[in-house]
């Protein structure tokens, strides 16, 4: 270990008691706080080249710990506790082949649009550009882009035979099957 790594290690170890106290104050449970501190130290050790010696090690580690905690909380918010497997047993999913077939139909319909309409709907609808940005990219007036997008949407609805919200999602045959799992 070179001198800089030794100094880094010493400074990091000196902050551990404060780091642990901070983690306990955030979480309230010693075991989870210790896990969070360990994850923080592992992350800091792996990223030590990003730390500038002579700056505030404590602030750097507290920031890593806080960010690590927020990441775990976000992840936990997306997880579902299902230790008994009851939720999993009742899961039903719309068959994926329908989505693939819908996408194939959409691509065919998109190819049938005039170039200007296709370009406009892709810029605004798929690429996330504002109407203003799309108009600038296409070199035309704002009203022209809005008109092209509107005509493209209308034509796609005609080609795909979409009349409303009920035309999206599971069809009439599979809808009762996939929704039954969530009714119980």
UniProtKB/TrEMBL annotation:
InterPro entries to which the protein is assigned, alphabetical: RNA_pol_sigma-70-like, RNA_pol_sigma-70_dom, RNA_pol_sigma70_ECF_CS, RNA_pol_sigma70_r2, RNA_pol_sigma70_r4_t2, RNA_pol_sigma_r2, RNA_pol_sigma_r3/r4-like, WH-like_DNA-bd_sf
UniProt keyword annotation of DNA-binding present: yes
Keyword DNA-binding: yes
Keyword set, alphabetical order: DNA-binding, Sigma factor, Transcription, Transcription regulation
Pfam family name, one: Sigma70_r2
A single MF term (Gene Ontology): DNA binding
Example GO BP: DNA-templated transcription initiation
Domain RNA polymerase sigma-70 region positions: 15-78
RNA polymerase sigma factor 70 region 4 type domain mapped to chain residues: 105-156
NCBIfam families listed in its UniProt record: PRK12516.1, PRK12547.1, sigma70-ECF
Family: Belongs to the sigma-70 factor family. ECF subfamily.
Protein name as annotated: RNA polymerase sigma factor
């Amino acid at each position: 270990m070179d001198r800089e790594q030794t100094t880094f290690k010493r400074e990091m170890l000196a902050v551990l008691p404060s780091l642990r106290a901070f983690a306990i104050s955030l979480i309230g449970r010693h075991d989870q706080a210790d896990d969070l501190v360990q994850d923080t130290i592992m992350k800091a050790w792996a990223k030590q080249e990003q730390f500038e010696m002579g700056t505030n090690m404590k602030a750097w580690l507290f920031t890593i710990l806080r960010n690590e905690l927020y990441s775990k909380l976000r992840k936990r918010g997306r997880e579902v506790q299902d230790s008994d497997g009851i939720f999993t047993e009742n899961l039903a999913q719309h068959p994926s082949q329908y989505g693939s077939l819908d996408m194939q139909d959409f691509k065919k319909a998109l190819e049938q649009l005039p170039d200007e309409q296709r370009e406009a709907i892709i810029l605004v609808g798929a690429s996330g550009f504002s109407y203003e940005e799309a108009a600038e990219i296409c070199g035309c007036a704002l009203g022209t882009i809005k008109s092209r997008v509107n005509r493209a949407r209308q034509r796609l609805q005609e080609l795909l035979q979409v009349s409303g919200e009920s035309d999206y999602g599971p069809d009439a045959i599979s809808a009762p099957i996939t929704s039954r799992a969530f009714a119980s």
